[in-house]
Amino acid sequence: MTDKQKMFADEYLANGFQVGKAYRAVYKNSKSDTAVRANSSRLMSNPEVKEYIQQRLKEIQTEKTADAVEVLMYLTAVMRGEQQDELLTMDGISKEVRVSSRDRNKAAELLGKVHGLFDKNVNLTADMGIKIEVDYGEDS
């Protein structure tokens, strides 16, 4: 992988996955939109560039992104009132307060959705044998 390809991939990740913008930032002499689209597409299909982008995304996700367990732990702490908010008073003093009941209710709602407590779709299945008898009365 060349240095410019690496710069392109880093620019692509830094500017919100905008391929054309990343290409123009690295290859400054490109003027034609058609050439930018074609060349950036070629770079994005390069196996080394793709692998580098995937590797960097994994690193970024590991460092910066909360996983599901962390999110659930945070929501649980908010719901239980263990989380604190910072409140700025009129005289400019900052103090810690418990989260509001509105925030606690929202956290409880989100946790309930995760655990499927509010599913409205109920599937009822039953195996029932149906026997129909027709009685025409007595023979005439």
Give a nutshell description of this structure:
By secondary structure, the chain is mainly alpha-helical.
Description:
There is one protein chain. The chain is mainly α and 140 residues long. The chain folds into two domains: 62 residues, Terminase, small subunit, N-terminal DNA-binding domain, HTH motif (Arc Repressor Mutant, subunit A), CATH 1.10.10.1400; 47 residues, no CATH class. Helix content is 54%, strand content 7%. Strands 1-2 form a two-stranded antiparallel ribbon. A hairpin with a 5-residue loop joins strand 1 and strand 2. The radius of gyration is 30 Å and the shape is flat. The mean pLDDT is 87.
CATH superfamily of the largest domain: Terminase, small subunit, N-terminal DNA-binding domain, HTH motif
Provide the β-strand percentage band.
Answer: 5-15%
Just give the CATH class of the largest domain: Mainly Alpha
Helix share, percent: 40-55%
* CATH architecture tag of the largest domain: Orthogonal Bundle
- Largest sheet, order of strands side by side? 1-2
Q: Roughly how many Å apart are the termini?
A: 97 Å
Question: Quaternary state, please?
Answer: single chain
Biggest pleated-sheet summary? 2 strands, antiparallel
Which structural class best describes the helix and strand composition?
mainly alpha
What integer value in Å does the Rg equal? Answer: 30 Å
Pattern of helices and strands? HHHHHEEH
